[in-house]
Each structure stands twice: as C-alpha cells, then as structure tokens.
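[09:14] KT: can someone run the structure on this one? pasting the chain below
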Amino acid sequence: MLIRPRRLRQNETIRNMIAETSVSADCLVYPMFVVEGEGVKEEIPSMPNQFRFSIDALLKEIATFGPLGLKSILLFGIPDHKDEMATSAYDENGIVQRAVRAIKAKFSEIYVICDVCLCEYMSHGHCGIIKDNDVDNDPTLELLAKTAVSQAAAGADMVAPSDMMDGHITAIREALDAAGFTNTPIMGYSAKFASAYYGPFRDAADSAPHFGNRKTYQMDVRNGREAMHEVELDLEEGADIVMVKPGLAFLDVLSGAAEISNVPVAVYNVSGEYSMVKAAGKNGWIDENAIIRENMIAFKRAGADIIITYHAKEILEKGLLK
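[09:31] RB: done, structure tokens below
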C-alpha cells in the first residue's frame, strides 16, 4: 500500500503542522444585550451564562475582555419604551446610543458593531412599520437609516442591519454618507432565514412578534439559490461584509456565499445553536468544549471570515482554539 494518509496523523505536532483550518480570537464577535437601569446583570433563562446588562454592568464585563484578546462586540438594545414607530431605536439618548458612548469613552479599542433592527423597539415586535398586517418595506427604510446614523453618531464602528428589508443597504449607505459617516462600514444580514433557531434570542431581547411571524421578510429555510441572490443584492448595494444566519443548519449557504463574495463573509452562531449545546453539555450528553471547538472550525471551513457567537468569551477563557 503506497498511499497511507494516516502517516500524517501520527502525533499532534504533525496534525497541527498540516491543519487546513484555524480559528483565532481576531475573528470572534461577542453579542451582548444592554438594558436600562443600574447594577443589572440578569441571566437570560434560555441562554445559560448570557446576560442582560445595564450600562455600568456592561462596562465591568467589557473590562474583562483585554486579557482574553476579545476585541469586538455586537450590541443589542432593550428599551423601556416601545411604540409603533420604534422611536427609541434612533433616539440620540436611546439605550444603545448611550451604551456606545460609554464604551468608547472607556474602551476605545473595543470594536463596537450595532445591530440595526426595529423589532426590539416596536410595540408589535415586528421589524418595521405595519400596514395591512404586514411590514411595509419602503417607509421602514427611512427608520432603519435614521437608526444607523444615530448609532454612527454615537461612535459605533460598524452598523449591521438585520431587518431583511429590500434595499436596506442602499438606504443606510446613502444616509451614512450624507451624514458624513462615509467610513462607517455596513455588515449586511444578507441571507437571514426565518428560523426556529432564534427562539432564545427573542426571550433575551423581548422581540417576539405579537402577531403572525416574520416569513414575509426573512428567508424561507428551504431556499439556497434565493440566498445567493440576496447576497448578490447586498454586494451590489455596497455591503462591506455579508452574513449568513443561522450558521450550523446553513453551512451550505455559508459555503456558497464565500464562493461568490468579494468582501468578507460573516456567520451568526445563533441563540438556539448556543442553547442546544449548553443543554446537552449540562446533561452530560456531549463533550461540550469539544463540540464548541468543532462548531467554530465548521464555520471557518465553510468559508466564514467572521464568527458571531455567544461562545466567544468562554472559547477564549477555556483556550478552546488551541
């Protein structure tokens, strides 16, 4: 037998030497939730070891990131006030805007990405203005653009629209440029599916729709070619980064996006994926640390440049990338 692939698996040194895929701290983004109040660090029941933080508690948490090498967060706001025009989303004194200013004042090195969506701020829980029991696309674009500009004005390094409205990248880019934020990049939630994997997030962000569902604007989970079309549209509109969400059940879509994209590709390892690993680990059904590492490698192997994951901090605390 002349060809024996096992020759290159004999010990850890040679396996590491020829490893095709690696994950580093630089590619990890940690999603975080900020709420009103003081001294709040409230664990999310369906997401063990994930919390809603008040701004002061958020700053204390971020202070622990330096030694770990964790450099980037994706920030979600949970306001006290909600209405049918999502006014808290683009209020210059909104929860996200104040949080960004506080983070940048104390930790200028932390790269802050702000989620641009309206569901957390809408009284009905949908991602835009409602007309005839559905989200009205074009009027919603104006509110998304105002939200992105307000976040950039507060000091956000990047904005990330997650609403899945048609034309949102163009609307936000034009608004940012008109406001003088030409250097603020946009990470599009380009192929975002109407997925059951978001359940725990809706618990975390208090963003479940009060009627119907989001299938008229988020993508049908059965469609792969359509996902490529959505990615192509975001690229044409000027997205600086494109994203696939969720991750594990859509690795084929992630791989396809990486093949056609001429900009970096992100993947969102979403709340349901996180919570399933945590639940199985708690019950002793899996080697939790090994599964987390394999999941991160799977994202990278499929083509992700950036991995947004609730596991980010523990990955670095536990040294799971080694």
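[09:33] KT: thanks! The mean pLDDT is 94.
[09:34] RB: yep, looked fine to me
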